[in-house]
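How a chain folds remains the central question behind the approach discussed here. No coordinates are needed to read the tokens, only the vocabulary itself. For completeness, the protein is quoted in full, as a sequence line and a line of structure tokens:
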Amino acid sequence: MNRRKKHGLPSGSLIHMGDHKLHQVEFSVMDFNEETYSEFEVKSIDDLAPCKSTETVSWINIDGVHDALVIQKIGEHFQLHPLLLEDLMNPNHRPKIEDFDDYIHFTLRMLSYDREKKQIEQEQVSFVLGEHWVISFQETPGDVFGPIRDRIRNNKGRIRKLKADYLAYALADIIVDHYFLIIDEIDEEIEKLEDEVLNGKNEEILRSIQHLKNELLLLRKSTLPVRDAVGNLMKGTSRLIAPQTTVFLKDVYDHTLHISDSIEIYRETLNSLMEVHLSALSNRLNQVMKVLTIISTIFIPLTFIVGVYGMNFRFMPELSWEYGYAMVWGIMILVTLFLVYILRRNRWM
């Protein structure tokens, strides 16, 4: 994120702070109630006028938040606060929920797991909940809302029987549910790391552990704010949230608690794996040092003996003795055998 783009500008200035840019902002609308349903694309923002006044529920999905003019027109059409519009164009916000009385703005992180790169991909998704409409803002096309669209089209479940607040809940719920998929992927990676630590075959194990810890940190940053925000929304202070929807929000809250607990467990597991790996490295080093120490212990006296007889003094009786060479070899062999016996008796080798 390049914060210099907004340096010196007043609050509410519409400057895109992200990297993703589309050639054109794309709109799609799903309008429904229990009896009727329609789905269409929007070519002009003026075409959204019926969505504001209709008694049916309208879900307006917008792909692309880089065009300041489009965001400004949407804000004017739905009378959205300038600071809210500013947040829409900054895709690096912490997940949060804001109640503006006439509408509620909340931001979540939509996560997916790239198995090839073994990392979490993230995208910010912002929602604005009105009395009869929900607007979702995404950075790029492609999302996890396919099952929601199918339920609307096929009139399955409660989604077409209830109001816009339930639709907002359903969208938030499916995003949080995908966090469980991330947890499952990380769980598989941790199981692989456990095998590698026990086998001691992976030389990059520390790097892998640290990478997973960073991914868990990203997941934690995406989950904890959602838990706190949903907890505040469950207090029932907003007139836009019906009492029956509050019950479903509690389910989202419970999911975030479960995910948070799993994250802490996995972090502890990774810390334990790191300790086991470092302990294994230390044991292997100790074994190497033990072998080197044994070798040194055996060769030190031998080195002393050959050093003595390697001196160039004129008067060394053994040098002229016929059996002097054999005697030195015999002494060295006896010393070696004696040291090996002592080391084995004390179980040092």
